[in-house]
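Lab notebook, bench 4. We co-purified these components, and the gel suggests they stay together. Before we commit to crystallization screens, I want a quick structural picture of the whole thing.
Request: model the full complex, all chains together.
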Amino acid sequence: MSDTERLAELRELFLGAPESAAARLLALVLSFSLVCIVMWLVRRRTLRAEYTPIWMGVAFGLFLVGLNLDVLRGIARIIGAWTISSTVFFLGEFFLLAICLNYAVRLSQAGTQIRRLAQDLALLRQRVEELSEAGRADAATQI
Amino acid sequence: MYLIIPALNEARSLPHVFEAIEDAELEAEIVVVDDGSTDDTARTAAALGARVIRHPFNMGYGAAIQTGYMYALEHGADLLVQMDADGQHDPSQIPAMVEPIRRGECDLVIASRFLEVTGYRMGWARTAGRKLFEVLGRLSGVNVTDPTSGFQAMNRATMELYVRDFFPHDYPDVDVLVMASRHGLRVRECVSVMRSGLRESQLHGGIRTFYYVYKMLVSMWAASSDGRRP
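Here is the predicted assembly.
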């Protein structure tokens, strides 16, 4: 048996390790807790409903994993990971990257909008000053 | 009375809307809220004699209509009617809509396309969605057949509730009605015959439909904890 074959066999041993009931339970508890926290924040009006889909998606993913760890095994085989735990870390990092990118886009949009608002405000202020000066000049002429 | 018309790229349909308003001989200040249009909406509305409020960028239908509520409140309005700029609402129905509010019988009147058979047709998906929210609305204490109607009349108390921060930016529909009901406002419907709009609605369609259903369910759940019903 070559080294490559032995490594592949070892990897299959890692991936085929029996499911841990604790890991399943943890995933289910985390998923349920996440849904509860998100709904609580929405109900308190701290989080707007339009920002919840991504978190509900994560909760749904955790729920799926909790129901069947084979989902994670499948992903591990596809991405070439050795263990389920490293797959979880990889997916977590990927999610964090995606959410950072999402917020970077939103921040860019918010920055542009704030600049636009400030410019509009400056122009309006200038217009108000112009009008009040014209008003004062009119009053002076009438006197 | 203030007539608020939120508009996004409606330069083509606004003349028809104003013609209908003129035919209805309403005594109202007409306010068009231009939600960041890229066409001549603002200029057209101003040329037609409306007061125009321009958003510096697009913020959504909810934000546009809320700007209208804020304007009306600032100017001491007691009565407000909102209608869409796509020409499907008939302004001649406005006197009948505002009458129950003037008599103090209710705070908010919704012009319903489905209170009676009026020949208005929707696709099966939208019909199913409307039925779902009609049932959920009833469970939350809101008895309306057309929670997505943008043709509404309201008094000052309703405007004061609707200018609060938690009013949605995008789709103020059944969730807002649940909120109004939970704050003790009296909601009523009247029959409305809608004309087909000059163009298709941009609000709900494609993937937005799924998002709309999800968002509405979450928002309704949040609104159901507001205030206390009388």
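Chain A has a mean pLDDT of 87. Worth comparing against the SEC data before the next meeting. Chain A has five helices and no strands.
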